[in-house]
């Protein structure tokens, strides 16, 4: 009796983007000594904002890299204003010891309670980069209000951080073709109803124009080159698994593109390479004749 299993099945990836630059964010939670604002963990940050930011900015070839969450205590900056004053975002950025990165090429992002005493302001960016090339950076920073995490019945406005990153990279609500509800930078954009509605999927929210993409990619101060990779990554598409005591175990992989490796295991712990398939347009058919002599074997497909 042969027990077989295929791991890592999935649906087709489409509309892949080549990611060749990276923006790094330092997320910092402000605590007033009693309540700490912002996501509870790095994984919560990713779920609430990070995954959406990466899907949106993939259109421009950008990876949004979040450093580990910092937490600082400050009653002054628990609530922040966008203007001037003791608790303005400008004062927050220039004050020392509030979690800022020592790397000036990193954008600092603070999670606070409220901005401008308004229940409707989700986020504010300290400084949009002028588009005339005369920019000199002395401060940077994004502030995200707690309402961005709690609105929509606890479902966050997941594109808020992506929108504020746009401001940090020189975009605003009208320039570079930002108008229109489906554009990331439109002030009337509705938050996507989760990842399935972010461009190029579903309702196609949070689009970027070619002019916006050109602008952000020109901001070398914050946008750093990285080794190119694909987003979203390709995944195997496995089907038609069959076992025959005559010929053995077989299945079909119909994903097109990169080379992949079929690995086998007897215990789901130790995996060994069984066969490496070269890049193919139409996928491949796998057959393991030796499986007729086995009581158990597990299979998985890895890309690359
Ligand atoms: Zn805005």
Short synopsis of the structure:
The protein has 304 residues and is of the alpha/beta class. Helices cover 14% and strands 30% of the residues. It contains 5 helices and 16 strands.
Number of DSSP strands? 16
* Overall mean pLDDT: 87
Q: Supply Rg.
A: 24 Å
Distance between the termini: 32 Å
Helix content: 10-25%
What is the strand content?
25-35%
Q: What is the number of helical segments per DSSP (H or I, 4+ residues)? A: 5
Q: Looking at the structure, what is the overall shape?
A: elongated
Helix and strand content put the structural class at alpha/beta
> Which spans of ≥5 residues are poorly predicted at pLDDT below 50?
8-13
Major beta-sheet overview: 7 strands, mixed
Order of helices and strands: EEHEEEHEEEEHHHEEEEEEE
- Which distinct ligands sit in these coordinates? zinc ion
């Amino acid at each position: 009796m042969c027990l077989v299993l295929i791991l890592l099945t999935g649906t087709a990836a489409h509309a892949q983007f080549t990611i060749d630059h990276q923006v790094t964010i330092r997320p910092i939670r402000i605590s007033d000594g009693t309540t700490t604002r912002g996501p509870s963990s790095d994984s919560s940050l990713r779920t609430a904002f990070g995954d959406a930011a990466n899907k949106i900015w993939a259109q421009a070839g950008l990876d949004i890299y979040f450093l580990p969450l910092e937490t600082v205590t400050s009653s002054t900056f628990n609530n922040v204003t966008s203007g001037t004053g003791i608790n303005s975002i400008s004062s927050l950025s220039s004050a020392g010891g509030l979690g800022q990165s020592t790397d000036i090429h990193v954008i600092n992002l603070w999670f606070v309670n409220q901005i401008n005493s308004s229940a409707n302001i989700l986020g504010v960016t300290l400084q949009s980069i002028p588009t005339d090339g005369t920019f000199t950076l002395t401060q940077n920073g994004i502030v995200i209000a707690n309402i961005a995490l709690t609105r929509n019945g606890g479902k966050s406005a997941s594109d808020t951080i992506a929108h504020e990153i746009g401001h940090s990279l020189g975009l605003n609500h009208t320039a570079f073709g930002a108008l229109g509800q489906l554009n990331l930078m439109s002030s009337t954009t509705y938050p996507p109803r989760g990842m399935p509605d972010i461009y190029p999927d579903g309702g196609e929210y949070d689009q970027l124009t070619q002019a916006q993409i050109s602008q952000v990619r020109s901001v070398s101060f914050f946008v750093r080159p990285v080794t190119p990779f694909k987003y979203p990554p390709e995944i195997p598409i496995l089907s038609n698994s069959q076992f025959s005591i005559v010929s053995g175990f077989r299945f079909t992989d119909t994903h097109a593109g990169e080379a992949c490796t079929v690995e086998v295991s007897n215990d789901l712990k130790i995996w060994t390479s069984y066969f490496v398939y070269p890049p193919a347009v139409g996928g491949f058919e796998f057959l393991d004749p030796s499986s007729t002599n086995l009581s158990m074997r597990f299979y998985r497909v890895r890309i690359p």
